[in-house]
């Protein structure tokens, strides 16, 4: 596995600050770590689907663990939904997880398709954590994580059948990102994105969306920016699904958890007022 110099991977002061946060504060995201402990599958995204509200009933002393288990089920359902849209993936294909975090979706993809998966992240801590998980699962020959920038991965052109990002695009320029993904995809290859985006039909970003930006230190893009950047890079949307209504129950349930961080209210407000949307976009590469 090629080791790259941090200076060649972290190209801006902003990227360095994001990497430093995840490297130096790995236990700040208690939601991700506690949910991952349910079955050893660690995600870095939110959930979709109808929750089992019976978890709020029953003995008080076990309620929080029931909540954790149910929230984890919903976030895993979100990853399953993403993988459902990758199309025809064969065991000999290669996939890329852009902004792979602790690797949860990569392991699910390998288990489902039997193919090789490479994850890239600018956090060395996340690389080490995910590669340790791959070793524990006995899949280091198939699933590998790399300290690389998803804007400039260094992988061969046309080497990927599929690529996905799961709530990571708000940290990068979309035109740069999709140019790199278009380069990496083989003709007819598929890119799938799940992301939160501001609703540019309603005007400027709301105070709730700005609050989310500030909380995560990210740059939430307007919805239209995704489609402009895709079109500019020969990526043609074939399926767009508004997941907003299906993620609201996840956030409602999370308000009952001791793991709640305070960001739940801005998310729920933004979703319900229509200033923020949760989208799945699947796009195919056309041309060479």
Characterization of this structure:
This protein has 288 residues and is α/β, with parallel strands linked by helices. 42% of the residues lie in helices and 19% in strands. It has helices spanning 6-9, 13-24, 30-36, 63-84, 104-113, 124-137, 174-184, 207-216, 223-231, 244-254, 264-273; strands at 94-98, 116-121, 143-147, 160-166, 185-198, 235-242, 276-285. It has a seven-stranded mixed beta sheet, with helices on both faces. Helix 3 (30-36) packs across helix 4 (63-84) and helix 7 (174-184) crosses helix 9 (223-231). The longest helix has 22 residues, at 63-84.
Which helices and strands, and how do they pair?
Elements: H1 6-9, H2 13-24, H3 30-36, H4 63-84, E1 94-98, H5 104-113, E2 116-121, H6 124-137, E3 143-147, E4 160-166, H7 174-184, E5 185-198, H8 207-216, H9 223-231, E6 235-242, H10 244-254, H11 264-273, E7 276-285
Parallel strand pairs: 1-2, 1-4, 2-3, 4-5
Antiparallel strand pairs: 5-7, 6-7
Helix pairs in contact: 3-4, 4-5, 7-9, 8-11, 10-11
Instruction: Give the CA-based shape.
Output: globular
Cα separation of the termini? 28 Å
Measured on Cα atoms, how large is the radius of gyration?
Answer: 18 Å
Largest sheet: 7 strands, mixed
SSE run: HHHHEHEHEEHEHHEHHE
Approximately how much beta-strand content do the residues carry? 15-25%
Q: State the low-pLDDT regions, or none.
A: none
Tell me the helix content.
40-55%
Q: How many DSSP helices?
A: 11
Give the averaged pLDDT, no decimals: 94
Based on the structure, what is the oligomeric state of the protein chains?
single chain
Structural class: alpha/beta
- Strand order across the largest sheet: 3-2-1-4-5-7-6
Q: Using DSSP, what is the number of strands?
A: 7
